[in-house]
Amino acid sequence: RKEVEQDPGPFNVPEGATVAFNCTYSNSASQSFFWYRQDCRKEPKLLMSVYSSGNEDGRFTAQLNRASQYISLLIRDSKLSDSATYLCVVNRNFNKFYFGSGTKLNVKP
Amino acid sequence: DVKVTQSSRYLVKRTGEKVFLECVQDMDHENMFWYRQDPGLGLRLIYFSYDVKMKEKGDIPEGYSVSREKKERFSLILESASTNQTSMYLCASSSSGGHVEKLFFGSGTQLSVL
Fold first, then answer.
1. CA-to-CA distance for A1 and A106, rounded, in angstroms?
2. How far apart are the first and last CA of chain A?
3. What is the pLDDT of residue B79?
4. N or C, where is chain B less crowded by C-beta within 10 Å?
5. Does a cis peptide bond (omega within 30 degrees of 0) precede residue A14?
6. How far is B108 from chain A (nearest CA, A)?
7. How many Cβ atoms from other residues are within 10 Å of residue A41's Cβ?
8. How confident is the model at residue A104 (pLDDT cuts 50, 70, 90)?
9. Is B90 an 8 Å CB contact of chain A?
10. pLDDT band at B100, cuts 50/70/90?
11. Which of A42, A94, A99 faces B96 most closely, judged by CB atoms?
């Protein structure tokens, strides 16, 4: 079983839509959780960390459910510039990072 | 802002050549990593280093070696490049201190082995 699993998509949504991605992780000892954004042929960039209480950054909201071992990312009012691949990343110990394969989002005019 | 710099954005090498990929970070991070990313396979860890001269194998170390002589620099070496090492190579660094350890990536090196 993979450490981190994501639906690869693609999610095709119109501008202004709300879209949500989920990610599940297999190891309950996982400690830190992140969403990264990766544009085509570019490096992953940190979008936001995910905290147990849930956190919001503008149009983006991340949630963590430790009991069910899943992480979610909600994007409100989608923009064309949100089109990218979103990677779920889980950290266990200081140097163990596990990556999902990414969820592709296409926001269309 | 953390800056992780990879020496080349694109490289084309021939089978059997020795290839050096260089990575430098400017935030005094203890941990440095080399990943490769292939379509459908996601990011896979090749090697990581948690201190100068210290290294540990990741998930796919075969055909690679690394060097960390200085804290800010982590080099990936392909001793004898092969076509199946054609890939996007990503260097990353993170700190060992603090509450939440985040990974910061370099801009990647797209390596083609012909």
1. 28
2. 38
3. 94
4. N
5. no
6. 6
7. 10
8. very high
9. yes
10. low
11. A94
